[in-house]
Q: What sequence folds into this?
């Protein structure tokens, strides 16, 4: 593959990097900003599985009408496409960190629900704040028009990929189906 370069704001940018590498650079920048801020606030270092569970709880709870009702454990397991035991182990760890709370379903006493705990809510708000600040920083570098275009393209790509893989369709996280 022939590599080309073009000047952008006086910098020479090598074209021809694979997509994985191109997507990794901004992801790494965002992750570094998040890790730095969350560490300064005293949050524990979370594994990728913890973050996946916390994000799914927030998303599913918002889709079902709010955080107070939380989400059913069965819906969380289904939405994550992870083994029930794995989700249970991750929830045990997050509960120990006071990031989530489990409670009985008020409509079905046997069924358990889970929601973000007080510490989890602060974590989620901080993640949103840092993400927005990082996006604003990138908009300053790229220009707001390019940033809006980038965001629109990424939203479209995410919707297309999620629709194809069955991970998130119509605002709901779903299990990947083998066709």
A:
């Amino acid at each position: 593959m022939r590599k080309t370069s073009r000047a952008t704001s006086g910098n020479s940018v090598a074209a021809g990097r694979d997509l994985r590498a191109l997507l990794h650079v901004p992801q790494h920048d965002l992750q570094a900003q998040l890790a730095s801020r969350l560490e300064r606030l005293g949050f524990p270092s979370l594994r990728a599985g913890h973050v996946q569970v916390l994000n799914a709880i927030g998303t599913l709870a918002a889709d079902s009408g709010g955080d107070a009702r939380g989400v059913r454990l069965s819906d969380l397991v289904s939405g994550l496409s992870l083994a029930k035991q794995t989700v249970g182990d991750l929830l045990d760890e997050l509960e120990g960190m006071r990031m989530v709370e489990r409670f009985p379903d008020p409509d079905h006493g046997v069924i358990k629900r889970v929601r973000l705990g007080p510490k989890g809510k602060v974590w989620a708000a901080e993640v949103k704040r840092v993400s927005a600040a990082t996006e604003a920083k990138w908009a300053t570098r790229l220009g707001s028009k390019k940033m809006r275009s980038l965001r629109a393209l990424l939203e479209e790509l995410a919707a297309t990929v999620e629709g194809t893989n069955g991970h998130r369709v119509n605002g709901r996280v779903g299990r990947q189906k083998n066709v």
Observations:
- Helices lie at 19-40, 48-63, 73-80, 84-96, 118-142, 144-165.
- The two ends are 34 Å apart (CA to CA).
- Residues 77 and 85 are 9 Å apart (CA to CA).
- Residues 1-12, 167-179 have pLDDT under 50 and may be disordered.
